[in-house]
Amino acid sequence: MNIKVGVLGPKDTVELILDVAKSDTNDLSFFPFTYTKHTDITEVITKNRSMIDVWIFSGIAPYTIAKEAGLINKNGFYPELNGSSLFKTFLEITYLDHLKLERISFDTLGEKEMVDTFAEMNVPHEHIYNIGYQFYKSPEELIDFHFSLYQQGMVQACVTCYRAVYEELKKRKVPAYRITPTRTAIRQTIKRSRQQGETLHFKKSQIAVQIIQVEDMNTIISEDTFSYEVYRLDLKLQEAILDYSEAIFGSLLPLGRGNFIIFSTRGLLEDATVYHPNTLLDNLRLITDQPVNIGIGYGQNALAAEQNARLGLTHAKNQGGNRVVLVDESGYIEGPLQHPESIGFRFRTEDKDISEKLTKAGINISTFNKFLAIQDKVGPVSSVDISELLGMTPRNARRILSSLEQHGMAEIVGEEAPTGKGRPRKIYKIGIFA
User: Fold this and answer.
1) pTM of the prediction?
2) Fewest CB atoms less than 10 Å from the CB: which of 165, 288, 297, 403?
């Protein structure tokens, strides 16, 4: 097992971390990434996250930026600045520059850590100013904090954890000092990274089972339908699920009409960025108007994973149907799962009125947007247009168009004669009409 560790930060801190890491190359591979501006951090991680198992950041600032952007979860670490880091800076202030410690400004450090360090040194801290770090603060904000205190004569030295802040204060002729992590803190961070990397590798090798169930398939059979229609529907469902299975490198096994099971690994499923289970759910709901549920289970073996998947399927049904619910190896239940790209147009609307109407109509935004896309191409649509272009049953297309009309999101603008026998087909224009 080889764990890929991305080291991200300013050039000097990255070089320090890599130097400490020289003795930890047996099962770890280190990849350096440097930046000059904090705005580059998200771009660097986004471009390289697929090849990195664990990230080590130079400090809390880049870590927080990545965390708030949702680019890391439990795979990000940074060397904490402890008392040893402060002592190293204090030595520089007192012994090298002969300044007193009574009037200093700090940023980023925890209040308790700083007060405890001053107490241990028997140094008063009544005139110590500190701007904590609960959320990301820009370099400009920290520069203003330090410089304002120095200009007013309230401090005689400024201590920062930011390289950019340190360099700007130096340009302004301010006695500035930069706290950097100690080698001991870096070693501890590397150790934590290795442990988390091993855990992630272990989890990724777990079996992942997905059970897909289209409920009550036989209810679509009526006096005026043939078994061929049901058979065609089943083939359409299989085709959609097969495309999904191929995208996540899984193995598909049909279990009978409307029931399917996919075997893969947790790593393959979680790393699949193109095709999310909710995308599959949306596609299946376009094909049939029957409720569709997906249970996902993780386990150390196929039996345990399948049991968890069936538990997830049960919870999906109990939550009202048309859900994706996941159960992990510990029995933790998560769901309904949200699509990771839910901010995209296809899966979300910012129009509150549209959202409320769709909710009442029982139609999701994905389906509505697909109908609009077809209308943009062919003009006003019939159930046959929708059925042919989206691969759903004519019955389901009629049901959705009728529901849109009832809730003021479509209006009948005409009729067309069928090619064979039967009643004229209604032609709809989709939009907001009431």
Assistant:
1) 0.56
2) 403
